TrEMBL record:
Name listed for the protein in its UniProt record: Glycoside hydrolase
Family: Belongs to the glycosyl hydrolase 25 family.
Pfam families (alphabetical): Glyco_hydro_25
Organism: Methylobacterium aquaticum
Gene name in the database record: acm
Alphabetized UniProt keyword annotations: Glycosidase, Hydrolase
Lineage: Bacteria, Pseudomonadati, Pseudomonadota, Alphaproteobacteria, Hyphomicrobiales
Length: 298
């Protein structure tokens, strides 16, 4: 993981101070002090330019990519998990400073993640703000999928807004096809409306580069977006899309989780994150969406 290493210029040896009037010695001492301070400042700035502050020094990445180095400049970071992470020590996850966790809940219309309730309850007990996500299966009706989501995901008013995970199932043996844009967009919009009606919270759209280009580009501006970009900053991969969450690696290392885990960053400051937690609404769009009744405003 990246870290800041501050530098300090070597102080001059006492034997190098020439014989001179006391005022001259004082002046030179002040000058040397200023030079030392300037050198230290330059070293710190150089370190920041090379990577910036690391808000999570106990976390890491097994395969860090230089294209996403700026992700660590964001003070609010979290993880997303599923059964593939195995048992999780949520107390350690919390102790590492994790600000949020999204937990896989359901997929399609007949699958619940094997560790959903274990992770849901564990994160809750540890005090990690958590939300549930549904992975869309494009060969099942939108209604079936939302009926399944409602049947298996608690309607917890303390939870984060739900997430609809929309990406093509290209590696699926049962449903590798891509739908026409209009059909995929109609299914997505239906599921978002049903999620919001069930939870009372504006859902977040999670997507990857391909699906966004095929279906979402220029669409659904009133929903917060969570984008995957593990080799470049989101602005380089997503056209005209303000992102709220950024999944910047799938090979993260976080205390309490064995092996790889997805790491994510929130775009804004701690104050903006607090606003999101209080309203379930992207702070940048709060005034406009609140006027339309699209924010919780607890």
């Amino acid at each position: 993981m990246f870290s800041v290493k501050s530098g300090r210029a070597p102080m001059p040896m006492e034997s190098t101070i020439p014989s001179a009037p006391w005022s001259s010695v004082l002046s030179r001492g002040v000058l040397w002090g200023r030079r030392a301070l300037a050198a230290a400042s330059l070293a710190t700035l150089a370190a920041c330019a090379g990577g910036g502050a690391d808000f999570y020094p106990t976390k890491g990445d097994a395969k860090p990519h230089p294209g996403v180095a700026k992700a660590k400049l964001h003070p609010i970071q979290g993880i997303d998990v599923s059964k593939w992470q195995g048992p999780i020590d949520w107390t350690s996850v919390k102790g590492a400073g994790t600000q949020f966790a999204y937990i896989k809940a359901t997929e399609g219309g007949d699958h619940v993640d094997d560790r959903f309730r274990e992770n849901w309850d564990g994160a809750g007990r540890a005090g990690v703000p958590r939300g549930a996500y549904h992975f869309v299966f494009w060969c099942r009706s939108a209604k079936d999928q939302m009926d399944w989501f409602k049947r298996n995901v608690p309607n917890d008013p303390t939870a984060l807004p739900p997430v609809l995970d929309v990406e093509w199932n290209g590696h699926s043996q049962l449903c590798p096809k891509k739908l026409p844009k209009a059909q995929a967009l109609a299914m997505t919009e239906y599921m978002l409306r049903e999620m919001e009606a069930y939870t009372g919270k504006r859902p977040i759209i999670y997507t990857d580069i391909t699906f966004h280009k095929d279906v979402l580009e220029g669409e659904l501006p009133d929903y917060p977006h969570w984008v995957r970009s593990t080799a470049a900053e989101p602005e380089q991969r997503y056209v005209n899309r303000d992102w709220m969450l950024w999944q910047f690696t799938s090979t993260g290392r976080v205390p309490g989780v064995r092996g790889d885990v997805d790491r994510n960053a929130f775009y804004g400051t701690k104050a903006e994150w607090a606003s999101f937690l209080a309203t379930d609404c992207d702070p940048r769009n709060h005034r406009r969406l609140s006027a339309a009744g699209l924010c919780t405003d607890k």
